[in-house]
Amino acid sequence: MHAVILAGGKGVRLRPYTTALPKPLVPIGDQHAILEIVLRQLSTAGFTHCTIAIGHLGEIIRAYVGDGSQWGMTVDYATEESPLGTMGPLLTLRDRLPETFLVMNGDVLTDLDYADVLRHHRASGAPLTIATYARKVHIDFGVLTTDASRVVAFTEKPSMDYRVSMGVYGLSRSTLEGYTPGLPLGFDELVLDLLSARNQPYAYEFDGYWLDIGRPDDYDRANAEFTTQKSLLLKGA
């Protein structure tokens, strides 16, 4: 099984932690970087090959990870010379990838079964499989519904339930056909194109542990929780 880790971003929202380190290498706990945890999880799940898309401070990632042999994997790299969006780096890699593969952000902490996501993707026949997580938003205001300046409904401090992308995907190489290598391609653009073509992606619903480390508050939470979640995140690794 083959995985692609997207690790080319500048991690602007996580500054100052990412001033000198790429976001996937910020430490979690006393011993581990985020990227190390992800690679150990992928290896344990049975992935044998990983391509890391690097950009900002990418040489530090290359020096840290090397050829992946310490995790029993083969790791190679694709360098992003300019920002290409979430899916753009895959276009330059397309000829190096198998027909189905896993794609994920390099800053995700989760006990998601990556191999199961890929198995479900293959079985579904969908062009794209999106690992999703349930979220609830509490609105602290009374919400009005209006029509022609008239209030037609009112809800006091409602809650909204919805599912979000976890930043982990099963993807088919054929889904990338028709896009131009070297040009940016965002996840949002790809999904909207698939929906417009009535070629719906598949949702892989997950309700375990997931934390997207995008902001300093998320990073502080990850460190605070890591001691109690370590056995869950690194089980079998």
UniProtKB/TrEMBL annotation:
Coiled coil feature spans: none
Start and end residues of each Nucleotidyl transferase domain: 3-227
InterPro entries given in the database record: Mannose-1P_guanyltransferase, NTP_transferase_dom, Nucleotide-diphossugar_trans
Signal peptide: none
Name of the protein: Nucleoside-diphosphate-sugar pyrophosphorylase
Species in which this protein is naturally found: Streptomyces sulfonofaciens
